[in-house]
């Protein structure tokens, strides 16, 4: 029997579907575009993650420059080949000391630190329990782990305990942001640790928005909760927010770090973090340790921002770190409000679905330790020029 002859595929537009999807996004107000900023503009930045204002601190910049001069523009190879320098080792020593952990391992981004840690500590056959509002890098880490993943409701410690008590796997990991990136709320770390300890699971805490901001000296949420140095607690962090540079880290027991050096693919198969970033992050850490009041200043400025938003009829939640989140009535209202504020010289973040899985669009304003009275007055004036109906 002869099979019917298949028609040859008509050579079409290989990008046609992508164009159609872009048109759909445009219609739904979901199209994202890059807006390159100038090196120096007159905009008040309340959208960056430079919580301590250290990105342009002369001491931090100088350390980056010195590192480039001494070590070159790149790390030249993966950490296990040529990419580990004395500079990396010194930063790792300092990070572990500051956060009260036994050891640290620097990755080339916080995203990769999460991929590396979660995947290497779990794996096929293991259980990973992840908070529903964890950062996308944690979500991707769970997917990459090939473990059985249970997504627990946001902050729902009882649901996490249920998942752990039903498990058949030997290995179990619970992973949570310390400070959630969109709403800025703190995870119930002490309760989570009590549950993971009781069930023999590891607790992985992403300190991205907590390092430099949470704790009296900015040493992070785990330390503030009394969990630093616990053998069953592993921290991940980024060097790109309060430390003003670039890169990531995993911190924990030396056994954990040795395991990652040997098994974390996001570490092994990636070029080491560039020396400029290592040097700059180390200098930022030195500044933070010399000026521990920076952390409280960032948190205080977050309270100032909340006060102003409330004065103008918005309903932000009380800040627990430097992130301030103000719910908006719709994606369009969020986009329009962010655009109006920018017209008035204030840059804020705008979060809408699908970045926010709960579907609530928000403005996200980030405080910085170096915000001045003049900056706050400028925000006040810009908010005064917005229609009051945009909030919920
Ligand atoms: N974790 C959280 C909670 C984050 O918000 C981010 C960055 N936005 C990351 C990890 C990733 O860090 P990096 O930007 O250094 O890759």
Keywords:
392 residues; alpha/beta; Aspartate Aminotransferase, domain 2; Aspartate Aminotransferase, domain 1; 2 domains; seven-stranded mixed β-sheet; four-stranded mixed β-sheet; 11 strands; 41% helix; binds 4'-deoxy-4'-aminopyridoxal-5'-phosphate
Low-confidence stretches: none
User: Order of SSEs, N→C?
Assistant: HEHHEHEHEHEHEHEEHHHHEHEEH
CATH homologous superfamily title of the largest domain: Type I PLP-dependent aspartate aminotransferase-like (Major domain)
The CATH C-level class name of the largest domain: Alpha Beta
Percent range for helical residues? Answer: 40-55%
Cα separation of the termini: 68 Å
Ligand list? 4'-deoxy-4'-aminopyridoxal-5'-phosphate
**Content-based structural category:** alpha/beta
Largest beta sheet: strand ordering: 2-8-7-6-5-3-4
Number of helices: 14
Strand-residue proportion: 5-15%
Examine the coordinates and then state which fold CATH places here, giving the name of the CATH topology of the largest domain.
Aspartate Aminotransferase, domain 2
Radius of gyration: 22 Å
**What's the number of extended β-strand segments?**
11
Oligomer: single chain
Mean of all residue-level pLDDT scores: 94
